[in-house]
Design a protein that fits this description.
It is a single chain. This protein is mainly beta and 184 residues long. The chain has a single domain, classed as Jelly Rolls. 7% of the residues lie in helices and 43% in strands. Strands 1, 2, 5, 6, 7, 8, 9, 10 and 11 form a nine-stranded antiparallel β-sheet that branches. It has a two-stranded antiparallel sheet with strand order 3-4. The longest helix is centred in the first third of the chain and has 7 residues. The protein is globular.
């Protein structure tokens, strides 16, 4: 496994062990010992997945303190345009979006620190995304900023959105409780 730092402090694109043969493919997006050697957070408490149709956008989601969470996200089927928006005051990337493509074919993943909003758009054929989270879902601390307010240039026309995602405040109207600490 290799970890490539992204522009968002504390975020990394991970290239995970990935094998393909006549049977299909096999990937290992998480290994505690490797995370420890790379100096990455590895205390996950919850796992979940989503299936999303092409063009649909999910996000931009996060949890506020005291339930802020780091996430490890990867795509097990299809491809997604994955987006991070840094909400940590004091970060050189505060309020700025960064995107990368996650795909089952590439076998890559993204590690997202607490205080960074996450969302994605499923690309051609849709996407199945898996997540590990360092905090359990806490509905009263679950928040988001509107998908169209962070300067993201979505690669496809935006398809279905949930009522919840449409109702989030714009990024400019969100009073962030997050602060960048310790450089990441």
């Amino acid at each position: 496994m290799t970890a490539r730092p992204l522009r968002c402090p504390g975020a990394f694109e991970l290239r995970v062990p990935y094998a393909r043969d006549a049977r299909g493919s096999f990937a290992k997006p998480f290994h505690a010992g490797t995370f420890a050697r790379l100096g990455l957070s590895a205390r996950f408490r919850e796992a979940f997945w989503s299936q999303t149709r092409a063009g649909a956008v999910r996000g931009l989601h996060f949890q506020v303190p005291p339930h802020a969470a780091a996430k490890l996200v990867w795509c097990v089927s299809g491809e997604a345009y994955d987006v991070l928006v840094d909400l940590r005051r004091g970060s050189p990337r505060f309020g700025r979006a960064e995107a990368l493509r996650l795909s089952a074919r590439k076998g890559n993943a993204v590690l997202i620190p607490p205080g960074v909003a996450h969302g994605f758009q499923a690309l051609r054929g849709g996407a199945t995304m898996c997540y590990l989270s360092s905090a359990e879902h806490a509905p009263r601390h679950d928040r988001g900023v509107r998908w169209d307010s962070a300067g993201v240039r979505w690669p496809l026309p935006v398809g279905p959105l949930s009522a919840r995602d449409r109702a989030f405040p714009a990024l400019a109207d969100f009073a962030s409780p997050f602060r960048l600490r310790g450089g990441a």
